[in-house]
Automatic annotation (TrEMBL):
<keyword id="KW-0805">Transcription regulation</keyword>
<dbReference type="Pfam" id="PF04542">
    <property type="entry name" value="Sigma70_r2"/>
</dbReference>
<protein>
    <submittedName>
        <fullName>RNA polymerase sigma factor</fullName>
    </submittedName>
</protein>
<dbReference type="InterPro" id="IPR013324">
    <property type="entry name" value="RNA_pol_sigma_r3/r4-like"/>
</dbReference>
<dbReference type="GO" id="GO:0006352">
    <property type="term" value="P:DNA-templated transcription initiation"/>
</dbReference>
<feature type="domain" description="DUF6596">
    <location>
        <begin position="176"/>
        <end position="275"/>
    </location>
</feature>
<dbReference type="InterPro" id="IPR036388">
    <property type="entry name" value="WH-like_DNA-bd_sf"/>
</dbReference>
<dbReference type="Pfam" id="PF08281">
    <property type="entry name" value="Sigma70_r4_2"/>
</dbReference>
<feature type="domain" description="RNA polymerase sigma-70 region 2">
    <location>
        <begin position="17"/>
        <end position="77"/>
    </location>
</feature>
<dbReference type="InterPro" id="IPR011990">
    <property type="entry name" value="TPR-like_helical_dom_sf"/>
</dbReference>
<dbReference type="InterPro" id="IPR007627">
    <property type="entry name" value="RNA_pol_sigma70_r2"/>
</dbReference>
<keyword id="KW-0731">Sigma factor</keyword>
<comment type="similarity">
    <text>Belongs to the sigma-70 factor family. ECF subfamily.</text>
</comment>
<dbReference type="Pfam" id="PF20239">
    <property type="entry name" value="DUF6596"/>
</dbReference>
<dbReference type="InterPro" id="IPR013325">
    <property type="entry name" value="RNA_pol_sigma_r2"/>
</dbReference>
<dbReference type="InterPro" id="IPR046531">
    <property type="entry name" value="DUF6596"/>
</dbReference>
<feature type="domain" description="RNA polymerase sigma factor 70 region 4 type 2">
    <location>
        <begin position="107"/>
        <end position="158"/>
    </location>
</feature>
Amino acid sequence: MDVQAALTRAHHEEWARVVAGLTRRFGDLDIAEEAAAEAFATAVRRWPAEGVPPNPGAWLTTTAARKAIDRIRRENKRDDKHREAQMVYDGPPETVGAIDDDRLRLIFTCCHPALAMQARVALTLRMVGGLTVPEIARAFLVRETAMEQRITRAKAKIKAARVPYRVPSAEDLPARVSGVLAVLFLVFNEGYLATGPGTDPLRPGLTAEAIRLARLIRALMPDDGEAAGLLALMLLTEARGTARVSADGELVPLAEQDRGAWDASLIAEGHRLVRGRLAAAAAGTAPGRYQILAAINAVHTSARDVRDTDWTQVLALYDQLVRLDSSPIIALNRAVAVAELDGPQVALAAVDRLGDTLSGYHAYHATRADLLRRLGRSRQARAAYDKAIDLAGNTAETAYLTRRRDQPH
């Protein structure tokens, strides 16, 4: 067996299990994180020489538990805590079901609403995803020391506020799940189209991590429709990843993408999830925001050519979404479908009504520019492109908008 591949796989599959189990046992995120990291570092040293153990997860769990006990001893914890740790170490192995429950508890702890959203994202990527602090810092364009402090403060707040390490009660669960999914969606969006200027426009490492965590949530909560919807949305979006930026580093909009370059397996998986949610809706379960967004993406990815797009269905889905989420960004995206069905003049009127709230959003100006261009209002279109370029978040968007602005009409 390839030892490096085994280490990588173990890190992906076992990090959250190990951290979650240690958190339950010792009640301390710091101890859990440090002991897990030491266990994986030990594996990196020993597995190449000794071979990959038959059960890597059990090996890592046992090693991490020893590391945690050693730390407790070094820090001269109270005798009862020491005995508790020793008893856990000497006790029977955990069942897979219990470990899965621990991971779910860990996710809800890291995404607790007592923490700011940025702290939730950082803590989730570290404790659940296993990303290193430098990796998280690079992804979100902050200094390593600042990210380390953010994670440290988040763990301290959890301890000080005595945030319970548990799955929320039935009445609190829907709101708390939505918070977890919002964290994962934020991680995915940063990878899908990075917001920082002068950086790589796509961060495939982040989108892959978001999808991996979304799969985990889906597996742990198979009956949650929005968890399935978010995973489907991510898969159908990620499927287009290789076609979204040209060889020259320019963003390629959906209508111009090479659909033959889309990932057929991700699309098929995403469509299966969407069909499953449509079946649930037919049975009387109303779809949520992520499920509707996934259905919209399913319509787009079902069309072999942009001219085959069922815009009537897209608009109907946006009308359904607006009833759940009346945000101006949803209204802006709906206007794109309106333009295809009712023409750019009708769509422009809808977009202009959003100007007071979206004047600082580059996509608002880019959408206006496209509609004005289609109406032959070249001077106004150019001004709108200029505004979009000023506000654009990365080099790929800037390159695309600049080309569109400078193209002859």
